[in-house]
Amino acid sequence: MKQIPVAVQVYSVRHEAEADFAGTMKKLAQMGYDGVELAGLYGKTAEEIKKVLDENSLTAVSAHVPIEELEKDMEGTLDTYASLGCKWIAIPWLREDRRYGAEKYEETLQLIGKISESCKKRGIQLLYHNHDFEFKKTPEGVYHLDQLYLDAPAGVLDAELDMCWVTVGGAEPCEYLKKYAGRCPLVHMKDFRREDEKVILLPLGDGVVDIKAVAKTGIEGGAQWFVIEQDDHHYGKPMDDMEKGLRFLKKCLED
Q1: Is residue 70 part of a domain?
Q2: Distance between CA atoms of 144 and 135, rounded to whole angstroms?
Q3: Confidence class of residue 247 from pLDDT cuts 50, 70 and 90?
Q4: Count of structural domains, the chain
Q5: What is the mean pLDDT of the chain?
Q6: Which residues contact 137 (CB under 8 A, 6 or more apart)?
Q7: Residue 1 forms part of a structural domain
Q8: Which of 9, 68, 83, 96 could form a disulfide with 229 if both were Cys (CB 3.0 to 4.6 A apart)?
Q9: How far apart are CA 210 and CA 223, in angstroms?
């Protein structure tokens, strides 16, 4: 299988990053990660973040930035992430009042257009990272996520599809990835299983998502990076889980 680089979503090890950012980045690089997707700056300046990443040969691939943060200071926020070299900014989720059918949906679409335009001036592409709540359907039978991507078309808003939440939402992950081939440069690799109807997040390979098939489909569809994310660590320790997940994904990519 074609090799593409792998990043870690730093939210997966947020407590470790807050306690010792430099040490955590060093350990992730030693595990074999090629880059990071940031979720905040952990009390550091952009210069401090960049220095640590450069020292460990880690690429600042992207960042999850709440739309409210972008609305409050669009230019300053984007300048910060541009200075780190981020090629993508992902809106990590939308508040209920901003989602399809809610009072601020149209206003949010307009804001997305403005953010996207400002991103492009800096060589950044705007993405949206889904959860499972976007897999409700419109009266016409369209997933809310699909409707968002229709209302904010390709080039304005591209996709960062999360394989766990796509599956939880009821879609088949590989088929859904194919649907957004060419429009999903970053794929969130995340695994899970259900226990007593609860979604339990797990290291890659320990759950129900067919990671190897997803990797193959993602690469065929033009994915440029895989981003491993595990928000919670029900059974293991964060750093151990991220190392285990990376080993499994790399094995899949080698086959």
Answers
A1: yes
A2: 6
A3: very high
A4: 1
A5: 97
A6: 143, 144
A7: no
A8: 9
A9: 17
